[in-house]
Amino acid sequence: MKFSSQNKLTTTRGALFENLKRIFLLRIVIIVFLILSLVALRYLNIPLPLHSIALALFLMTLLNGWTYLKLKRGKTLSDKTILSQLILDVCVLTFMFYFIGGYGNPFIWMYLIPITIGAVSLKKSYLWFLTSISFISYTALIFFNRPISHLHMHEFEFKYDIHSLGMWLGFIVSAAVITIFVSRIGQNLRDQDRFIANAREKVLESERMLALGAVSTSTAHELGTPLSTMAVITKDFEHFLAKDKKALKKLSILTSQIKRCKEILATLSSASQDIHQKKMTKVTVNQFISEIVDRWRDTRLSTQLSFKKTYLNKNLKINYDRALSQAIQNLLDNAADASEDKVDFSIKTDRRYLSLIIRDYGNGNAAHLNQSMYQPQSSSKGLGLGVYLSKTIFDLYEGSFEFNAHPNQGMIATVKIPIERLMDAKKS
């Protein structure tokens, strides 16, 4: 039986949804239990007001049907929803017990079920209100009820001692309710604690990324002046070394590298503005990946890139994000650093995921690389931030990311990002 998970957007709403679902399932158990009890009592030839009991069961079934619709449609839930459900349960039980002996009925313990559920589902004020309603209902049944003489038959044969049988069944069912229902709600609370712990960890991670981003933006701004100075000086050197072709060739390389640094800083500045202004540009998957590959090839001329792509729909529109683009480039850089001669890059899309597989031919260590996802690691090739930053960005898209050793040689980086997240207007 499937219900809408719309209410699981937050831990509180998710817990309310789960509690209401368990009330629904527990109510089914109670209905079946009552029906079986009625059948057993009829088998023992004990006269009962079947019409009244059938009406009570019908009301409980109707209530459960309404609960099912709320779960199916995923309507917004609150503590008042749970409270109203439990109060209606108490009312239906009171109606039924009125016709079958009132407070002397051996199944009067069933009042404890809504209270038990409320104890782990409701805030204190609502719980006391529910308990008061149950107390008033129980007390009213002492003075207002239709007695059934067969409920206290003190004969020697156990099968006719209905009150003892009811007390025994009451213990069994109460124990089962506490064991199953309360333990599951306890699991809900533990899940909620884990969710909160993960959320706190993500907040700390975001703060670290924010600090890193602020430092990067500041550094980019500061680098602009020395790069401009270097560009002017190299321009002057072109005149001084006009006759030295060998020196001019080296100077040309230096000039192109300075130009490349300026382009990177301009891209970083533009990306910072886009993030600040929350700009998103729609592009096709093919355009997005092709731009990454072309830009990376321009910076890694000495590395042979074997690129394969398999698109379910290459015209699928996604949001262009510079951060995600840079995260993928970081992995390509990491692979090229490990094996400068060759890197394999394959991409595949299906109905659910964008999958990226990057293989190098170096001698990397999978355990070390997987550890570097969670903490920046020292690196002889750079600052050791590439893998860490990539993992953080993939997490924003609820993507998975891992390193594995290739059976022959090298490492394989595998990334899977939900297509739905790539199409979202905003990242959470």
TrEMBL record:
Keywords: ATP-binding, Kinase, Membrane, Nucleotide-binding, Transferase, Transmembrane, Transmembrane helix
Top EC group: transferase
The reaction(s) this protein catalyses: ATP + protein L-histidine = ADP + protein N-phospho-L-histidine
GO molecular function, one term: phosphorelay sensor kinase activity
Highest taxon, organism lineage: Bacteria
Pfam family, one: HATPase_c
Protein name: histidine kinase
Organism this protein belongs to: Candidatus Methylopumilus rimovensis
Organism placement in taxonomy: Bacteria, Pseudomonadati, Pseudomonadota, Betaproteobacteria, Nitrosomonadales
